[in-house]
Design a protein that fits this description.
This protein is α/β, with parallel strands linked by helices. Helix content is 30%, strand content 24%.
């Protein structure tokens, strides 16, 4: 596809996190927002005149001519909306997590493969300069034997006030700590280290938050890799202070990436040095830049469905392990009929791993 005009774009879900997408899209000259949808009319107030407004996504998809769409919805709504857009020939960038379950994720993968449209899962951390720098210096570490990663923060609305909404019902959300909060950090770890052989997970038994809910508040995962290395991942939205961090220990050196502070440190023995970052760009700008590049070239961008479904497999295995009393679950138990995940050492500088998509689903 040759892009010689602004792409006609829709936003489905303009409130909440959707406002981040609205603000990013309205600043671009290569995208023209022509339609938006939200069940709350006030969520559409920030849009300029001339943007068609809808309370229901169906008439938007059926009547508006589109090139691309940003979809920001509760997890259980994604498969129907995303598949409808893809089958209308629309490229889709959707918010994380990919899905509430591996089954839902594979449904969307099939639609993307059948239609040949780009489907990308958002998540701002992989577009940060600190993560790009981490990818670029992986080769200096030697064999990575230990990975430590965490995403920790406190959601006051949930923890203190019990305002869960749809997230508090696992049937609708799939969970929170591992699949929603944890998506960010598990995606980064998977992009850096590939898919593990086995996952061991616990979500704990202590209830921390107010209100009624049946989802996980925290998760602790051990990942075992084919090369003999291990990883430890913590995810929680009921903790302070906040942290988003990945530390990779290799036989030659260690990389410590503080993604909250946008700081990366390379440690060799007793010596440590800051890793220079490239251009520090707003993650939303970089995300849409790369997505439009993928539309123009046909090459997948970071978060492409063929990568995202691998993260979903890790999440599926983690929930299975936790449900079984923290016994190890092999990734072979949660297949999605995919080709092997590409080696992170083969990543192109400044991008996430770009592998071939599934041969069949």
């Amino acid at each position: 596809m040759t892009i010689d005009r602004p792409l006609r774009w829709a936003i489905i879900g303009a409130g909440g996190m959707g406002r981040w997408h609205v603000n990013a899209l309205l600043k671009r000259t290569d995208i023209q927002v022509v339609a938006a949808c939200d069940v709350n009319p006030q969520a559409l107030d920030a849009l300029p005149e001339g943007v068609a407004r809808f309370a229901d996504w169906r008439p938007l998809v059926e009547t508006v001519e589109l090139d691309g769409a940003s979809v920001i919805l509760p997890h259980h709504l994604y498969p129907e909306v995303v598949c409808a857009l893809l089958h209308r020939g629309v490229h889709v960038l959707k918010e994380k997590a990919f899905a509430r379950s591996l089954e839902d994720a594979v449904t969307m993968c099939r639609a993307a493969k059948e239609t040949g449209r780009q489907l990308v899962v958002a998540g701002q951390h992989k577009f940060k300069a600190s993560f790009v720098a981490t990818q670029e210096h992986l080769g200096e570490l030697g064999d990575i034997f230990l990975t430590r990663a965490s995403i920790l923060y406190r959601s006051r609305a949930i923890v203190d006030e019990g305002r869960w909404g749809w997230r508090g019902t696992r049937r609708l959300s799939g969970g929170v700590a591992i699949v929603d909060s944890g998506w960010h950090i598990l995606e980064l770890v998977t992009l850096l280290r590939g898919v593990p052989d086995r996952v061991i997970a616990s979500t704990g038994q202590m209830r921390v938050s107010a209100g009624e809910y049946d989802v996980d508040e925290q998760g602790a995962l051990i990942l075992e890799y084919p090369d003999g290395g291990i990883g430890v991942v913590l995810a929680s939205f009921v903790t302070t202070p906040s942290e988003v961090r990945v530390t990779l220990h290799g036989k030659r050196a260690t990389l410590d990436a503080d993604l909250q502070a946008e700081r990366v440190t390379l440690v060799r023995g007793a010596e440590s040095q800051g890793v220079p970052l490239g251009e520090v760009t707003d993650p939303a700008v970089r995300m849409y830049d790369l997505f439009l590049e993928s539309i123009a070239t046909g090459q997948p961008s970071p978060g492409a469905w063929s990568q995202a479904v691998q993260v979903q497999r890790v999440i599926e295995a983690a929930y299975l392990s936790a449900a079984r009393g923290s016994v190890p679950v092999a990734l072979a138990e949660v297949p999605a009929a995919l080709t092997p995940y590409p080696s992170p050492r083969g990543t192109r500088s400044g991008t996430a791993a770009r592998g071939e998509g599934p041969e069949h689903l």
